[in-house]
Amino acid sequence: MMIGKGIIKDLRARSGHYLSDWTGEASKGKQALTRIAAASVYIFFASAVPAIAFGQQLKKYTKDEMGIVHTLAATGITGCMQAVLGGQPLLIVGVAEPIVIIYHFLYEYAKDNSIPFVPWSGWVCVWASITLFILALGNAANFIEKFTRFSGEIFGLIIAVLFLQQSIKGLVDEFDYDKVSGSWATLNGVFGLLLAFVYIYLSTMMSGARKWRIGNSAIRAILADYGSAIMIVVVSALSFCLKGNGDVPQRMKVLAPTKSSWLKHGIYVADDMADIATGDILAAIIPGIVIAVLFYFDHSVSSMLAQQHEFKVKKPSAYHYDLLLISAMTMICGMLGLPPVNGVLPQAPLHTRSLCSKLKKEKKGKDAESGEVTSESDEGSLVCHETRISNLVQSCMCLLCMLIGYEFLNNVPTSIIWAFFTFMSLESLPGNQLFDRVQIVISDKKRRKQFLNTHHALYLESVRFSKIVQFTAIQVILLLGIWAITVWTGLIGISFPLWIMALVPFRLYVLPKYFTESELNDLDSSEVEELPAGIHNPALAGKTNGKESFLADDSDSDSAQSVLDDGTESYRTMGFKKTLTEEEIKKRFSQAQGNTL
Q1: pTM score
Q2: What residues does each domain of the chain span?
């Protein structure tokens, strides 16, 4: 295969669309401009808030050698590069949780071996960049079609678990606040837990605002899209209600960019890298390869999800060229003393989704673009405003946030940042089939029918229940194994991206020995196939799915208390529920019609 063939192909395919990426959608009128503006603001919050959270985490891990200024600068600079030079402008890049974890390992190694951390991490990025460059020239992106839901679901849940773990660690550390002691330290921890609970509860409630009955659709959409960011402001304001000690609760400490460690010496990392010993430079090869493998997997998956079929993206992809560009970004970040970036989830697909509008038929038969898609029924009439403008605007806003946002950030309690990690963990669970299958496997057999009473995945009726259990158990065991390696093996934990990448050949060559092709197609399909509510498999309708009982037999009755719980409307009024038969429904409505007449 010709070296660089994929890159050349991508450049030829995308070059003809470059001008239209800037002017095409903007020239379509007010509706398109409104959608682009809304997407720019939306994805800014979706990018900036995690960047701030990861910056606070990085600050803690590296003892202030890197922090919020670094993550916002990296997100903003590389975001502008992706918007202007990227092959797929819909792709959002930024600092992600895995790179924060890797940098924690790098810092510990550098400290233990008396190596200057930031210059040495620059060499790690150089080796990662070289590896990514080789992968791009070698057309490695041709193999991303081998990435299936099997590995993606495990990776997603590992990140969710690590989010939750970091949240718990951060909230526990609130009780060890070094500025106060005694009862004030305890109060700081307890008040931090209270603020965290309030933030998680309100943000989770806001994220479901689209399903509310109160308010109009525009207000509900704003609350759903920006609720987590709004709640940071609201709960931060509530934190000032506690009087008596100005240091409680603990708040973020973000220096002005002019006083930050990055502008003081970070931007001169290229000079400091020359002072690193040859042996230490060679030692940076291993973590560099680890980062390259992580980016190859994570960046490719993010790009795939940003242009998945249901978004109706029409312009061609550029996997090979974007892999080459991420190589350049990694080199630049390392030599500027910034953490490297890659395509991020869920921001990448959220960006594309926010640029989608639904088409409404006018009386004359023409199409008019209006409103963001909010339901599955609109999917067939989608149009995606593929543009570079929204990505560029949100990246510039991240840089602006770095320059002037520090005054606001210094008023935000650190407990809210740790609570945001829990919120991100919870938000990553819906749509993850591994999480769904775990719930099904551990559910009471008498309650499993509830999963079939709504739209449900095809595998629930097409795959034997014992095979569903086996497939889920394998994923859970692998998930726990990789998580254990990451958390409990010291510096060996830096290898976790290699184990995640190893899931791909495991899926391709090991699982087919234990599952049929049909079972794997249904359990691990790239596109989730769903069935409408109800039971469609005759075998399942007879209470058996193959040889195993998926649903309870008629003899497996619920307890009397469960029956009463389902049929009782309220224990205060003792009202009972009754489902009317078709004959009773017709009788009631005929009576009502007679009364009306």
Answers
A1: 0.84
A2: 5-172+248-357+384-405, 433-541, 560-596
